[in-house]
Amino acid sequence: MAIAILGGGISGLTLAWYLQRAGLDYDLFEAAPRPGGTIRSEQQGPYLLETGPNSLQLSDELRELLEGLGLTPQIQDAAAVSQNRYVLRAGRYQKLPSSPPALLTSSFFSLKARFSVLRELTRPALPPNPQETLAHFFRRRFGPEVVDYALNPFISGIYAGDPEQLLLHKTFPQLAALEQQHGSVVRGLMKSKGAPGGRRRIFTLREGLQTLTDTLARKLRRAHFGQAATLLHRREDDGLWELETTAGPAPRLYQQVVLALPAYTAAALLQEQFPEAAAALAQVYYPPMTAVYTAYQRADVQHPLDGFGALHPKVEQPYAAGSIWTSSIFPGRAPAGQVLFTTFVGGSQYEAQARQPEAEQKAAVHQELSRFYGVAAGAQPLWQYRYYWERAIPQFDARIGPAHAAADALAPQGLHVTANWRAGVGVPDCVRHARSLAATLAAG
């Protein structure tokens, strides 16, 4: 059985790796000359940057993949201070409580908000609602202040999204399950000793996360980079798939095809034979996002930078969604005596800022960093750099459900999907989904 994999990001590469280990025949086609998709590490002079994911959580599946690739010695754990997360409130950064008990004793939330969290234990569970948004769920369980100052910045930072739009059952189904099983999210968390799955190790690789995808690509025997799929057609007589690429017809016919592509790219390939599915996939929303990297002399920044970074609630009316304190988390990201910020501008709540000219963005980021971090008067950045994604992270809002249903309906015809818009937006989600699909294909 020959399998075509379209897309060479982390999902497609992981799938190919596990198919190869299982002895299955495949061809992987990737439009770009380099593998990895959104995972990119760039050395800009003395600065090592991540223009996609900045760090990863070490899930069991990801650990197994790194071990299989011989990359375990490359793992670099985040500094201990990275457990501290800050949120902008009343114009200054305050440490976010790390657990429900800490939340009740911390002054981060008002007494009214803390009482509302305690009352969550007695609030009745409502019947499951697949269309309930994150904001609606948290507002009815915990009250508006938790939505404004905990949920909103968290969702903006992780998903580049808006909790008023993202669906609970598509983003955090574990929380919905806790309400149904225990009648209370807090009670369920206490019985499970914390958040579902617990807090995993945060890590990077010593030479950047692109080491992962580069290593995967080198180990694949049938990967074709710089070849974009241009036509996908299923023959009616025998059900085999024909594929054409920018380099010409594919070398053979395929019994199975896997779309490891962004939803909008996959939609174009499905348009001819599956127009309804194509229309559903084309609706998946990817907001724009800009990352602005800014370096200062350490002596010019008053803030201790003793954490992972700081997030900005929309209610505070900030310019950026927040910043990661890159030089505090991992060594070797900036020269000694300097600090490096990675600031995120954009996402679904900050689209206008994401599309501003580069010079305006850099100036606005410097102004906001100066204001919140106590940058010395008159001090300028030693260095700034910008990276722009026109389409960043797929949003798991009301538009994702029809896309998921369309993808599932295509599987019986030998057309499968493994991509972040199907698996989940995190790299561990993509690795887990690709590994599972490889096992399914190998079994059947």
CATH top level of the largest domain is Alpha Beta
Q: Radius of gyration, rounded? A: 23 Å
State the helix count: 18
Main beta sheet strand tally, sense and closure: 7 strands, mixed
Q: State the strand order across the main sheet.
A: 8-7-16-17-18-15-19
Compute the average pLDDT. 95
How many domains? The number is 3
Could you tell me the strand content as a percent range? Answer: 15-25%
CATH architecture of the largest domain: Alpha-Beta Complex
Helix content: 25-40%
Low-confidence stretches: none
Our measurement of the CA-to-CA distance between the termini, rounded to an integer number of angstroms, reads: 10 Å
According to CATH, the fold-level topology of the largest domain is: Polyamine Oxidase, Chain A, domain 2
Bulk shape: globular
CATH homologous superfamily grouping of the largest domain: Protoporphyrinogen oxidase, mitochondrial, domain 2
Structural class label? alpha/beta
Number of DSSP E strands:
20
Offer a quick outline of the entry.
This protein is of the alpha/beta class.
